[in-house]
Design a protein that fits this description.
Elements: E1 2-5, H1 7-10, E2 11-16, E3 21-27, E4 31-38, E5 41-48, E6 51-58, E7 62-67, H2 73-76, H3 79-82, H4 91-106, H5 128-136, H6 141-148, H7 157-168, H8 171-178, H9 184-196, H10 200-212, H11 214-225, H12 233-247, H13 250-260, H14 264-290, H15 297-310, H16 312-321, H17 327-350, H18 355-372, H19 376-395, H20 402-416, H21 422-443, H22 448-472, H23 476-483, H24 485-507, H25 513-533, H26 549-554, H27 559-568, H28 575-588, H29 593-602, H30 610-620, H31 625-634, H32 641-654, H33 659-668, H34 675-694, H35 697-706, H36 713-720, H37 722-748
Parallel strand pairs: 1-5, 3-7
Antiparallel strand pairs: 2-7, 3-4, 5-6
């Protein structure tokens, strides 16, 4: 058996390791159709790129799709062809061929017939199962007609002659003979030949002429099925069209029928078929979307999105076939738009996402629904929903400040639930100001949204001031004044003073012009007058941090300022950086091992070199020999081991007071950096001991000669000058006495 294969595109291995495989002939390289199973090993001839190859295929080693490049499956695998007969051949010829084929195939022999036309069409695949299936497929008259429309028929002598030329491969001569005299059989034969040659326009023209000509049609049906069977013109036309649709896309087929000048009924049927399939797809997708639970927001969104995406192609097909004014088109499109719209509504009403996400998510669906809707009611409903979404989006703060806005709105809600006290108003301003300043920084001080929000905060604070102010400044206060005037006056003053402080906080905030003029300024002036009337100074200072988030972040130069930022903006956009900064600041602040221990406990996963820092702190807090020795014990290979040892040597030397001490030092550090000094001190100490022992001036002179700058130089000099000192004193005493006597004498004269 022979197959024409498009080598690198049309032959696919789809399964390995099977004991048998199914060959599938793909109709127009699109739809696989099951043929008979082939098992075992057999030789096959393949036409590849125009060359004939005989190969031995091991069918249990691989399965494959065999794709015909040009043949229509209903022609190449036509039951009449497989059985080696024409569509009007007697039943006895068919039965005879079947028996012959079975007998040959059972013994592994191949059979061919002149009707195979293997020079025009790829050779047919014949196995026992396929022969039985082919014979069974044309038992009923309807099926006989279906396959007869796509196979040759031999009615006249001209048909016989022309078909013999076809068997020889002379297609031109055959066409010439078929065209000699127009009959239903010549038209059918011309049409089938045209299909084989891929001339679909000629094929459709020829075959539909038989279908729509009453005489031709009746004669054709009688030739194939006998005189007892009847089939209407429309049914036969639809039978023909349906089989063509298996091989040809419907849009292409519609164009072909238009070119052929086919009947209006054929075009209408094709149009209905073309529209019917996409409409069915759209209706199925709508039904699928409707089956989703309304309160499942995510599922509703997915359903709406799938409905939009899965219906674009079929909707495009319908749009290309029907006019916008067509009621059928309007109905299906509006139903689609309404369901997409409803999916969006259900998502929005049940979603827990924030407004930004909800609006952006649903807007896509609603916009698409509005774009495709045609009917006025549907269009208006879609438009109304879009307008609602646009209004909601307009009322939302700019996305860049949404987190700041969210905080302020939350604080305002909390504030409204508290008693109307001035202290709460001040707290509100303090809490909201950093977030308000962040909005101001992002949007500018003239932005309408910023001014509206700032005014909202001032108005809320002002309300509490007025409420508490009025509560203390009422008629009942007069009675209380009579009872305890001093206490009441102190109470009133405290409230008035607190109210004025609240005003000073409000003065720091921007306000809308109308609010400032018509409400705030009037109340402020009234309060100021009464405050001054009570002798309360209005020249007071308040501390209000007007820093925005970014400004506060820039001020983070130490751990405390970082902590301040985190307390104000616990979910701020710089939190990650601040936490990193705090860790570094805390690390740098570690000056003792206790600090290091606290750092490690606070940052157990820190990547900073805390172990090195710990050693540093351990070393630089050492003050005694014992502490330096502890460092060496703790860090025998430490970074500061050399310095520690030098310090121990230095302190050991500094502790030396006696000869034995210096000797101990030299014993411990025979090559120490204080070796010379230690030896000098030992020599000096020994010489001085000799001086003390002998008590001779020569020994002292010897000491000073060797150690002129020695520790005992003063004492040695004194010992040397002990005798001479008294003689000097007596001499100077005599001289002084003479001077005194002379002075007295001169005075008496």
């Amino acid at each position: 058996m022979y197959f024409e294969i498009k080598v690198y595109l049309d032959c696919y291995t789809y399964r390995r390791g099977l004991l048998r495989c199914s060959f599938r002939l793909l109709r127009a390289a699109r739809r696989p159709q099951t043929a008979g199973r082939v098992t075992g090993t057999d030789s096959r001839a393949f036409f590849i790129n125009g060359r004939l190859f005989i190969v031995n295929l091991q069918f249990w080693e691989f399965g494959c799709y065999i794709v015909r490049k040009t043949d229509m499956d209903i022609i190449s695998s036509n039951p009449y062809r497989l059985l080696g007969v024409y569509s009007n051949s007697p039943i006895k010829d068919r039965i005879a061929n079947v028996n012959r084929l079975k007998a040959y195939l059972k013994v592994g022999k191949s059979v061919s017939f002149s009707q195979d036309l293997s020079n025009l069409i790829s050779p047919p695949v014949r196995v026992v199962e396929s022969m039985e299936r082919a014979n069974g497929s044309i038992n009923l008259p309807y099926d006989q007609l279906k396959y007869a429309l796509f196979w040759f028929i031999e009615v006249t002598s001209i048909d016989e002659m022309a078909l013999s030329y076809l068997q020889k491969g002379d297609t031109e001569k055959a066409k010439e003979l078929f065209g000699k005299k127009e009959t239903f059989s010549s038209l059918i034969n011309l049409g089938v030949l045209a299909l084989i040659q891929n001339n679909k326009v000629t094929a459709i023209q020829s075959i539909t002429k038989v279908i729509h000509n009453d005489n031709y049609r009746i004669a054709f049906i009688e030739a194939v099925c006998g005189s007892t069977y009847q089939l209407s013109e429309d049914d036969l036309a639809q039978l023909f069209i349906n089989e063509l649709l298996v091989e040809i896309p419907i849009q292409n087929l519609m164009q072909l029928f238009l070119k052929c000048g086919a009947s209006v009924e054929d075009n209408r049927y094709l149009k209905d078929k073309a529209v019917g399939e996409p409409i069915a797809i759209i209706n199925a997708e709508i039904a699928k979307a409707r089956s989703v639970k309304n309160n499942d927001s995510d599922a509703q969104y997915r359903a709406g999105l799938s409905l939009k995406n899965n219906t674009k192609e079929p909707l495009g097909v319908i749009r290309s076939l029907l006019e916008i004014s067509d009621m059928q088109y309007q109905m299906i499109v509006d139903n689609l738009a309404k369901q997409i719209l409803q999916c969006g509504i259900n998502y929005y009403n049940n979603s827990n996402e924030d407004e930004y996400v909800k609006i952006d998510t649903v807007y896509e669906l609603q916009s698409y629904a509005y774009a495709i809707a045609i009917g006025k009611l549907t269009k208006d409903r879609c438009k109304e929903n879009l307008e609602i979404l646009n209004k909601k989006r307009k009322d939302l703060p700019p996305i860049i400040v949404k987190e700041y806005d969210k905080f302020i709105k939350t604080e305002l809600l909390k504030y409204q639930a508290l008693p109307g006290l001035i202290k709460h108003a001040i707290d509100l301003i303090k809490k909201c100001t950093p977030y308000l300043m962040s909005i101001k920084e992002e949007l500018g001080n003239t932005d309408s949204y910023y001014l509206r929000l700032s005014t909202l905060i001032v108005n809320a604070a002002l309300y509490n001031v007025i409420e508490e102010f009025n509560s203390i400044n009422n008629q009942s206060i007069q009675h209380e004044l009579l009872m305890d005037r001093g206490r009441i006056i102190r109470k009133v003053k405290a409230v008035f003073q607190e109210a004025w402080i609240a005003i000073l906080y409000m003065d720091k905030l921007d306000m809308e012009k109308d609010f400032r003029i018509n409400r705030y300024s009037q109340n402020r002036a009234s309060l100021e007058e009464q405050v001054l009337g009570l002798g309360i100074s209005t020249y007071q200072t308040i501390q209000l941090d007007m820093s925005s988030e970014s400004q506060m972040f820039k001020k983070c130069k130490d751990s405390s300022s970082c902590q301040r930022y985190l307390s104000v903006f616990p979910n701020g956009k710089f939190v990650a950086e601040i936490e990193g900064k705090m860790e570094k600041y805390d690390f740098d602040a570690c000056m003792t091992t206790q600090n290091c221990s606290a750092f490690r406990k606070k940052y157990p996963d820190s990547k900073l070199p805390i172990s090195q820092k710990w050693e540093y702190c351990f070393f630089y807090t050492c003050k005694t020999l014992e502490s330096y020795q502890k460092y060496l014990d703790a860090y025998p290979n430490g970074r500061y081991i050399s310095s520690a040892k030098n310090k121990i040597e230095e302190m050991t030397f500094q502790c030396c007071k006696t000869i034995d001490d210096y000797k101990m030092y030299l014993q411990k550090y025979p090559l120490g950096k204080y070796k010379d000094e230690a030896e000098k001190n030992i020599a000096e100490a020994i010489l001085w001991q000799n001086c003390i022992t002998s008590e001779t001036k020569n020994e002292y002179r010897n000491y000073l000669a060797q150690f002129p700058d020695g520790k005992h130089r003063v004492e040695a000099q004194c010992k040397i000058n002990e005798g001479g000192i008294w003689a000097t004193i007596l001499s100077w005493g005599f001289i002084i006495a003479v001077i005194i006597i002379l002075t007295i004498g001169l005075c008496n004269n």
